[in-house]
Amino acid sequence: MPEPEVSPEQVDATIKSRAFIVLLVVAAIVGVVVSLAAWCFLELVHQIQQGVFVHLPSDLGYHSGATPWWLLAVLAIAGLIVAFAIVRLPGNGGHIPAHGLVTGGGPTLPIELPGITLAAIAAIGLGVVLGPEAPLIALGAGLAVLTIRLARRDIPPEVLTVVAAAGSFAAVSFLFESPLIAAVIMIEATGLGGPKLRLVLLPGLLAAGIGTLVSIGMGSWTGLSTSAYALGSVSLPAFARPDIADFGWTIALAIAIAAVTAVILRGGRATERVATPRPFLVLPVVGLIIAGLAIAFQQTTDKGFAEVLFSGQDALPGLVANAPTWSLSALALLIVFKGVAYSLSLGSFRGGPTFPAIFLGAAAGIMAGHLPGFSITPAVAVAMGAG
Q: Which of 12, 44, 96, 153 is the least buried, fewest Cβ under 10 Å from its Cβ?
């Protein structure tokens, strides 16, 4: 049965109550716990990527970087590990990214965290074209539920929902280094609205603000740069104001990106139908195909395989900053190869769908910046937003 609608008067009374003040204190504690866990998760993924694709090949004598057979082996192993997490551990490895960045069905249970974490670390750390935002949402919710249950077992479901949402807010805020961006994403993902939104938003913003503070402080405390895995700033030329040509190209570009996105999602859902019954077979094969796409891109352009692999949030600033060094043909090949790898990843592996779409949108925007009367600044901004 659907939950009964809460009236604005009931929300006002709840917010003014002493119990809600206690809930805010709990949300603050959850924000600290989840932010530290999110930092550990993201730092571990970053170190795995550096170790597997940079340091380990060099230590083995491949000083020019990972070889084609190395990419094939790593992505196949990633498929086996994620398949194990999906089949053998509780939680199905987390939500399937082909369904979009959505939540539902109640908060993540603590027992599901090992499987979700293993699937995410294996997929994202070993080069699959997915982002960390969806696993972080699950990680934040699961740790929040675990934290409050350790303190008290008889927790009403409504309180669990609010605390779990606060944990997800904190985790996503750590990634974006902004509580407001985290709030927008979480509202979109949960589909919250109406009076109930305020009950979740206040503890969520508190936890998200703490997540942002922790993300700022962890670099100085540890000597490790959080910019290695947070979404970096994109440097674009100054842009005075849009004109009629900018608006016209914006509409056309947004429609084109929507059409390409629909094709990518359709491919992801088709892959899901094939991968779900036999993950131990399909996921390693998909990993091999993704590696093959990265190798083919490196062989046909003067760019590296890393442009096709990974989620793209750490490569995005460099892509935009080095836009003049990219030919139109290289950009087109990047969109095709990474788009296919992204589509296959959506329906088979586990991770978030957001960052690869933003990266592909940026690549499309750089291409659109060559159109007459359409400068690169609005083109990239529009394409990233549409993606």
A: 153
